[in-house]
Design a protein that fits this description.
It is a single chain. 36% of the residues lie in helices and 24% in strands. By secondary structure, it is an alpha/beta fold. The chain has 3 domains: 23-96 and 202-372, Phosphoenolpyruvate-binding domains (TIM Barrel, Alpha-Beta Barrel), CATH 3.20.20.60; 99-194, PK beta-barrel domain-like (M1 Pyruvate Kinase, Domain 3); 376-525, Pyruvate kinase, C-terminal domain (Pyruvate Kinase, Chain: A, domain 1, 3-Layer(aba) Sandwich), CATH 3.40.1380.20. An 8-stranded parallel beta barrel has the order 1-2-3-13-14-15-16-17, surrounded by 7 helices. It has a 7-stranded mixed beta sheet with strand order 4-12-8-9-10-6-7. Strands 18, 19, 22, 23, 24 and 25 form a 6-stranded mixed beta sheet that branches. Strand 23 (479-480), helix 18 and strand 24 form a beta-alpha-beta unit. Helix 2 (43-52) crosses helix 3, helix 11 (327-339) crosses helix 13 (356-372) and helix 15 (393-407) packs across helix 16. GO terms for molecular function: ATP binding; kinase activity; magnesium ion binding; potassium ion binding; pyruvate kinase activity. It catalyses: pyruvate + ATP = phosphoenolpyruvate + ADP + H(+). Keywords: ATP-binding, Glycolysis, Kinase, Magnesium, Metal-binding, Nucleotide-binding, Pyruvate, Transferase.
Length: 527
């Protein structure tokens, strides 16, 4: 990273390092996605996670059944009511994930320099010499010398729970491999990843479609995380499927980039998806270690310029079992923020980790510190230059609102919106102050009943850096014939005051549509 990307002012910044971080209503501008599972599914724990800074709850359907996840979701709803914190729901598909099946669940010890056979016969028992897998086409996809990685849950990289294999022979449907390191596999399932090899399976599997058409449809999920996205067509196919499922036509699709095939088609995928998740666990296997950071920086930059959320995974793996992250992990979180990431996704750390609440809290604190030295001025100029001229009317007004807020040192930007597009455009220019996105519901009818839209849009902004949504009274239109709708503005200002981000004599920038025009106003508050 070039030095111009940081605002490290000497000696003031060095002295401030020793000052304790001050607690705030918004823990950080960068959002945190928490995966709910066995260690984080009670109402009490989820409530604590929400208060610590989790704004999106991820439900990983690569394991667990619908009944288990439904019970967790009901607990989430109860936690939202008790904590009064909004939270979006993300469904993560299983996708074409290869797995080793261990029906006995007995630990399997694998010794370095020994041979092990991978077989599609799932009726056989898993042993140190034989591992049944859930895919019959592996023997047709690999060749001698290919690398295969097997790890428990999400990849940890730890040699005690993960194993590297090298293909030495293909026998019919079986694949014979040389074990490269000793490891013990424990549990019923382990993920299997073949480095840089295309697996001929659909991205949206039949199992995924069943989960979406039942569990996701019933619960009106906000975001679909499309695992193993390899082509733009994968996103189009998923969107077409969602469009036929009632309210799920409003669900956003985040493409999860997990291998070199997805990387090669990244630009086309970004054009189709609503956001991108960089699955660094799998990418770290497909790519040489020294190349992972390059892809992260390039991909996040592309997402920033497109105004689409970028989510980074696998940042504090060690906190699955430890109360504090390593120095490298803490730096990694900060660098993800400085790169421009919108959100940090926690997987095993909250799913089965011993300290889910503490993990969310520490990650939030690191993000907040990194945001203090984020060079918004350099980023703003780069974003404006990238968009070029002529800008669209809305983008021009949105970027002007951010520049005005910086110039007058506004404490917040208040944006009135129905679709959420205006608020996301403002967030694209990374204002250093929070953006209170006042979502005004729209009244819709299907000739049989009246319904309000807006809830989806409000929750979906919970994964965008710097956006903090408020659901407004539907009687207040987003487009007003008056200069400003005073009553709904008062609600937003009161919320800001309660949050502690608006104080007497502060300046506030307001973005609102008036008729066919978009207007930016600067308000100076009295006592």
């Amino acid at each position: 990273m070039h030095s111009t990307n940081l605002l490290l002012e000497e000696p003031i910044r060095m002295a401030s390092i020793l000052e304790p971080s001050k607690p705030t209503f918004f823990p950080a501008m960068t959002k945190i996605v928490g995966t709910l599972g066995p260690k984080s599914r009670s109402v009490e724990i989820i409530s604590s996670c929400l208060k610590a800074g989790m704004s999106v709850a991820r439900f990983d359907f690569s394991w667990g059944d619908a009944e288990f996840h439904q019970e967790t979701l009901e607990n989430l709803k109860a936690a939202i009511r008790s904590s009064k914190k909004l939270c979006a729901v993300m469904l993560d598909t299983g996708g074409p994930e290869l797995q080793v099946v261990n029906k006995s669940e007995n630990p399997i010890s694998l010794q370095a320099d020994s041979l092990v056979v991978l077989t599609p016969d799932q009726d056989k028992e898993a042993t140190s010499n034989l591992l049944p897998i859930n895919f019959s086409g592996l023997s047709k996809s690999v060749k001698n010398g290919d690398t295969i990685f097997i790890g428990q849950y999400l990849f940890t990289g730890s040699e005690t729970t993960s194993v590297w294999l090298e293909v030495t022979e293909v026998k019919g449907e079986d694949v014979v491999c040389l074990i490269k390191n000793s490891a013990t596999l424990a549990g019923p399932l382990y993920t299997l990843h073949v480095s840089q090899i295309r697996i001929d399976l659909p991205t949206l599997t039949d199992k995924d479609k069943k989960v979406i058409s039942t569990w996701a449809f019933r619960n009106k999920i906000d975001i679909l995380s499309l695992s193993y996205t390899r082509h733009a067509e994968d996103v189009r196919h998923a969107r077409e499927f969602l469009s036929k499922l009632g309210d799920l036509n409003q669900t956003q699709i985040f493409a999860k980039i997990e291998n070199v095939e997805g990387m090669a088609n990244f630009d086309e995928i970004l054009g189709e998806a609503d956001g991108i998740i960089l699955s660094r666990g799998n990418l770290g296997i497909d790519l040489p270690p020294e190349k992972v950071f390059l892809f992260q920086k390039a991909a996040v930059h592309k997402c920033n310029m497109a105004g689409k959320p970028a989510v980074v995974t696998r940042v504090v793996d060690s906190m699955t079992d430890n109360l504090r992250p390593t120095r490298a992990e803490a730096t990694d979180v900060a660098n993800a923020v400085l790169d421009g990431s919108d959100a940090i996704l926690l997987g095993a750390e909250t799913l089965r980790g011993l300290y889910p609440v503490e993990t969310i809290s520490i990650v939030g604190k690191i993000c907040a510190e990194a945001e203090k030295v984020y060079n918004q001025d350099v980023y703003f100029k780069r974003a404006v230059k990238y968009v070029g001229e002529p800008m669209t009317h809305l983008e021009s007004i949105a970027s002007s609102a951010v520049r005005a807020a910086i110039k007058v040192k506004a404490s917040v930007i208040i944006c009135f919106t129905s679709s959420g597009r205006a608020a996301r455009l403002i967030a694209k220019y990374r204002p250093p102050m929070p953006v209170l996105s006042v979502v005004i519901p729209r009244l819709k009818t299907n000739q049989l009943q009246w319904t309000f839209s807006g809830a989806f849009q409000a929750r979906q902004s919970l994964i965008v850096r710097g956006l903090f949504p408020i659901l407004a009274d539907p009687r207040h239109p987003a487009e007003s014939t008056n200069a400003t709708d005073e009553s709904v503005l008062k609600v937003a200002l009161d919320h800001g005051k309660t949050a502690g981000v608006i104080k007497p004599h502060d300046r506030v920038v307001v973005f609102q549509k008036v008729g066919d025009s978009s207007v930016v106003k600067i308000i100076e508050l009295e006592n």
